[in-house]
Predict the structure.
Amino acid sequence: MKIQGSSWLFFLFGFSVVVHITTADLSYSVPEEMRPGSIVGNIAKDLGLDAGKLLARKARIDAEESYQHYCDIDLKTGNFVIRERIDREELCGEKVSCMVKFELVLESPLELHRISLLILDVNDNPPAFPKDTIKLEISESAVKGARYRINEAHDSDVGQNSVKQYSLQNNEHFVLSVRDDTDGSKNVELVLDKELDREKENDLNFVLIAVDGGNPQKSGTASIHVTVLDANDNSPLFDQAVYKASLPENSALDTLVVRVSATDADEGVNGEVTYEFSRISERAKKMFLLNSKTGEIKVKGALDFESNSKYEMRIDAKDGYGLSSDSKVMIDITDVNDNAPVIYLKSLSNPIPENVSPGTEVGIINVQDRDSETNGQVRCSIQQNVPFKLVPSIKNYYSLVSTGQLDRELVSDYNITISATDEGSPPLSSSKSVQLSVADINDNPPVFEEQSYSAYVSENNKPGSTLCSVSARDPDWRQNGTVMYSLLGNEVNGAPVSAYVSVNGDTGLIHAVRSFDYEQFRSFKVHVMARDNGSPPLSSNVTVSVFISDVNDNSPQILYPGPEGNSFMTELVPKAAHGGSLVSKVIAVDADSGQNAWLSYQIVKSTDPGLFTIGVHSGEIRTQRDISESDSMKQNLIVSVKDNGQPSLSATCSMYLLISDNLAEVPELKDISYDEKNSKLTSYLIIALVCVSTFFLTFIIIILGVRFCRRRKPRLLFDGAVAIPSAYLPPNYADVDGTGTLRSAYNYDAYLTTGSRTSDFKFVSSYNDNTLPADQTLRKSPSDFAEVFGDCDDSPEVGTCAKYSLVSCVL
Ligand SMILES: *[C@@H]1O[C@H](CO)[C@@H](O)[C@H](O)[C@H]1NC(C)=O
Ligand SMILES: *[C@@H]1O[C@H](CO)[C@@H](O)[C@H](O)[C@H]1NC(C)=O
Ligand SMILES: *[C@@H]1O[C@H](CO)[C@@H](O)[C@H](O)[C@H]1NC(C)=O
């Protein structure tokens, strides 16, 4: 993860843009009892949303669990549809306004809309009297205008659809009086209009009808049965018209709520008062118990403020004759902090990419507490050690917002614990754990474990052998962290790198493709790239240096004297030579290096073993003693040259020496050179050639002598008259101090004095280590060199001359 400089700016401004929660409400109203599938309205249109995006934005309808199944959104059209028949009476009971609240949740970006659905009443319930038959017992002495209370009819519907009016049928004695009570209920009374006469009729039957205001109208009836009594009687009287009580929810069973009391002026059985509920809702019936003798109302069920906080009921007090009066009981339930807050995760983007900027909204949380007032006031918090925080939004909604840069490579999962505590006493709290994963972004390039790699290999290795292995790590996830290795396509010594090494893309093992030759190059570098598989991929590269070590695979090459039979390399040794005089020198090179190229010289066979000796490391052949007349004129030495490798390699050569001052003796050369050959013709030819050469040589020697005398500074490489043809050395070898053949560093000067002493060339050569294969150089014979120099005069840049990088050629 890379933290950019601008992230803190993001951090500062992030919060102002994250909250998409809107309070824009949508309100619909719909009659109860609609068919499932009915359309309430088009949410998308009403909110100005693109209906085509609803599916992508995971639009959904959220509501309290008990309402969840009523409605839904059609994601294709954006229609708000009824899923299940809604019964207003079941949902809202006697509440005048029946409102159900839904929320429309949209994701990316998170958005929340409140939808309220008003359920309209349909006149689907008729008025109903508590009892089908109402029994009244009335004394015949009752006077006109006496009033008798009747329990009112009840209609589950509300408003217009509730009970509207009453009427009496088949009745001569009574008229109806309906008055509105202070509490909104109706007081229905029969008023005696024509006095009763027990002797004429001792009981009366008629019908009371209640009708509601709906359309069509619905009605309910009760039949009234009046028994005419012939004794005086008093009805019981309550000591209060309304009893009020208040008790906390969750009160224990059998808790006394209130005690009603009515007294009857009569004595005996007429004065015995009994109590009963005359009008009570089904809910209240489950909650309260009335003791018919004592008038005590006690708790019977579990009182819950949240489901019902007010109860109203009517109680009849009756005496033994059935005369009654009624009173009203109103019970208020008070709230107790008995509901812990509930945390709802309304929306969560999971997983979130690790590169989200600080301040990004990750989720929406809603907290609900069913208690009221302070008991229902909730504070929400989140634990400290996570890079997220809660930002309060509209009431009881919070946005979960990131506060810092995330790095999946450090923390890939968060357990976010959200706690909610209400302000009740004692407070209740709850918590919710939210699992949040961080998704990978390819933000880490592979990193090699080492800054550079070195491989060491002996030359002549097998193709395919392993040189070394490179390894890079990438902490990203899956393909973003899968590392592939490859060679970067540069060249090594002019050839494509793939001709030298290959790398295993998966393991990073580097193999040699070919066998290396230390004499060609001693080291080279390749670049290996590690690339991950992300999109776009990230990569890094590393240098691998391959060092080739020497193996003694080249035997010494004798440059001088040349191969037997190929030249007339015969050294003249003056008869007057003293002991210790330098006579000649064996020049050999070895293409290997170090010990493998440290040469030692040895005479393995000679005509006169006591006469000549060879410097072990210089190869210089010197006389061991003064030459005497008795020494044979022709001397033959076989010299072996050995390197110091393990095991060592060697080469041998023959050297012909002629002890003579006099060129006239030269004809005998043939016996030295070609002892075994008897062809006279050849011999003559040789003699003729040697004659000419000797004359020429003498001429040259005289000229040289004159020049050297003039300069007073001998320019011969070696002392005495014997000059060693340094030009036999290939450009990349030089004879230094006679201690063997060592590689010279750069340009060098050399005087060329061939064994035939025909010329004195000076040339300067610069060379490149790798441009000149040793074996080609080493096979040059003197005649080749002559050609080289000849060519050089004409075109120094081409042919063998160019190969030798000859810069100048001076005679
Ligand atoms: C997160 O919580 C769950 C259960 O609540 C637990 O199993 C898991 O180990 C927790 N992870 C971390 C990283 O704490
Ligand atoms: C790799 O990173 C890219 C973004 O760089 C992301 O889109 C992708 O999901 C990541 N892949 C995995 C397997 O996490
Ligand atoms: C190799 O890496 C270096 C820095 O580490 C970068 O400058 C260079 O461009 C890279 N080369 C290639 C070919 O990717």
Confidence is low (pLDDT under 50) at residues 1-21, 670-678, 713-811.
